[in-house]
Write a structure and sequence with these properties.
The strands form 3 sheets. A 7-stranded mixed beta sheet has the order 2-8-7-6-5-3-4, with helices on both faces. Helix 4 packs across helix 11. The chain has 365 residues and is an alpha/beta fold. It is globular. The chain starts with a helix and ends with a helix. The chain is built from 14 helices and 12 strands. The protein folds into 2 domains: 133 residues, Aspartate Aminotransferase, domain 1; 223 residues, Aspartate Aminotransferase, domain 2 (3-Layer(aba) Sandwich). Helix 9 links the parallel strand 5 and strand 6. The protein binds pyridoxal-5'-phosphate.
C-alpha cells in the first residue's frame, strides 16, 4: 500500500484544512428545512452589482478564449482609481492566492511568517503547506494588536508579517499611527503584508491610508479583494499593491492565466458601479447599528466592527452555533480558543431580524 502521508511529508499530513461556512443548500438538505439563511462567510448579501451582471452576459461568447494573463484592462482601470502605477499591481484568484504567491515567492523551507492571534487562519495553513510555519502572537485585551510583541517575535528567519486590518474574526482595527510606528521599527527585509479584505466597509477616521505609505516603505504590500463589498466571492478575484520590484517577483511565480476571464470582466465592471457599492456600504452600516442595539438589549458583549461581520460573546459559542443551525441560521463558530463567541455576518435587514429572533429563542430570553 502506498503511504501517501509519507510521500506528502509531515507538513502536509499534519495540515488541518480550512473549514468554510456551510452552504445554505447543504443545511437545508441535511435537516430537511427550507428558507435557511447564511450569515457565516462575510459574503455580500446584496448579490453582485448589476453592471457586473450585464458585463458578464455581454462577454459570454468570448469565454472560449484564454484570459489576459496580465489583466490588462482591469489593471489599467484599478491603477487609475487607486492613483498608483500599473506595475505596482498584481491580481490573483482571490486574495487567498495572493497569500499563497507571497509565501511561495519569498518564504523558503524552515523560514517563518508572523501574524497575531486571532486572525485569518489561512496564513498559517499556506505557510505550513509550503514547509514553513506561522508564529502567532497573542493579542491584548479586547483583541488589541500588540506591535511590541510582534517586533519581539520576529527573528532572523522571519520573512513576512501578515496584518489583517480590519481583522477577521474580530472586526477590530489598528490605526495609521500604529502602523507607521511599526513600519519604522521593523527590519526592512521583513515584508509587511496588510490584508485589507474589508477595506471598503471601514469608517474609522484614523484607519491607515496605506497606499500613501508605499513609496516610503518598499517592504509594504497591501492586499484587497473583490469578494466582499463588491460581491464577487464566487468569481475569486483579489489583488496586491506593492513596489514594482516586489510585484515583479510575484509575477514570475504566478500561473500564466491565474485570473479567469469572467472574473476580470465582472471586476472591471464592478469598479464602475458606484451606486451598488454605495448601497452595499449603507446596508452594512444600518445592519451594524441594528445588531449593536439588539445585542445591547440582550446584554451581550460584542466588538465594534469596521467590517461586515460582528464578533459577539454568547458564552457557549459552539452550542449557540449548533442550536441556530437547527433553526436554519448559519453563523460561524471559531473553535475552542474562541469558545465563548460566534461571528455573524451582517445581512439584509430581514436576515438580521431572523437571526435576532432565532438567537433569542436559542438563548431563551
Ligand atoms: C482577512 C481576510 N483575508 C483574505 C480573505 C480571502 O478573501 P478572498 O480569497 O475571497 O479574496 C478573507 C476571506 O474571508 C479574509 O477574511
Amino acid at each position: 500500500m502506498i503511504d501517501f502521508k509519507k510521500l506528502a511529508g509531515e507538513n502536509i499530513a499534519l495540515l488541518i484544512p480550512y473549514k468554510p461556512g456551510k452552504p445554505v443548500k447543504e443545511l437545508e438538505r441535511e435537516l430537511g428545512i427550507r428558507k435557511a439563511i447564511k450569515l457565516a462567510s462575510n459574503e455580500n448579501p446584496m448579490g453582485i452589482s448589476p453592471k457586473s451582471k450585464e458585463a458578464l452576459i455581454s462577454f459570454m461568447d468570448e469565454l472560449n478564449r484564454y484570459p489576459l494573463g496580465d489583466c490588462y484592462y482591469l489593471r489599467k482601470k484599478l491603477a487609475g482609481k487607486l492613483g498608483v502605477a500599473e506595475n505596482k499591481l498584481l491580481f490573483g484568484t482571490g486574495s487567498n492566492e495572493i497569500i499563497e504567491l507571497l509565501i511561495r515567492t519569498f518564504v523558503k523551507s524552515g523560514e517563518n511568517v508572523v501574524s497575531f492571534f486571532p486572525s485569518f487562519s489561512v496564513y498559517g495553513i499556506i505557510a505550513q503547506a509550503n514547509g514553513s510555519f506561522c508564529k502567532w502572537v497573542e493579542t491584548d485585551d479586547d483583541f488589541k494588536v500588540n506591535f511590541e510583541k510582534i517586533l519581539n517575535t520576529i527573528d532572523n528567519n522571519t520573512k513576512i508579517v501578515f496584518l489583517a486590518n480590519p481583522n477577521n474574526p474580530t472586526g477590530t482595527y489598528f490605526s495609521h499611527d500604529e502602523l507607521v510606528n511599526f513600519l519604522d521599527n521593523v527590519r526592512d527585509d521583513v515584508l509587511v503584508v496588510l490584508d485589507e479584505a474589508y477595506y471598503e466597509f471601514v469608517d474609522a477616521h484614523d484607519y491607515p491610508q496605506s497606499v500613501k505609505l508605499l513609496d516610503k516603505y518598499p517592504n509594504l504590500f497591501i492586499m484587497r479583494t473583490f469578494s466582499k463589498a463588491y460581491g464577487l466571492a464566487g468569481f475569486r478575484i483579489g489583488y496586491v499593491i506593492g513596489s514594482p520590484e516586489g510585484i515583479d517577483m510575484l509575477n514570475r511565480v504566478r500561473q500564466p492565466f491565474n485570473v479567469n476571464m469572467a472574473a476580470q470582466i465582472v471586476a472591471e465592471a464592478a469598479l464602475e458601479d458606484h451606486e451598488f457599492l454605495r448601497k452595499v456600504i449603507k446596508n452594512n452600516r444600518d445592519g451594524k447599528i441594528y445588531l449593536y442595539n439588539e445585542f445591547k438589549k440582550l446584554g451581550l458583549k460584542y466588538y465594534e466592527t469596521q467590517a461586515n461581520f460582528i464578533l459577539v460573546d454568547v458564552k457557549d459559542g459552539n452550542k449557540v452555533f449548533n442550536d441556530l443551525l437547527y433553526k436554519g441560521v448559519i453563523v460561524r463558530f471559531l473553535g475552542p480558543k474562541l469558545a465563548p463567541y460566534i461571528r455573524v455576518s451582517i445581512g439584509l435587514p430581514e436576515e438580521n431580524e431572523i437571526f435576532i429572533e432565532k438567537l433569542k429563542e436559542v438563548l431563551e430570553v
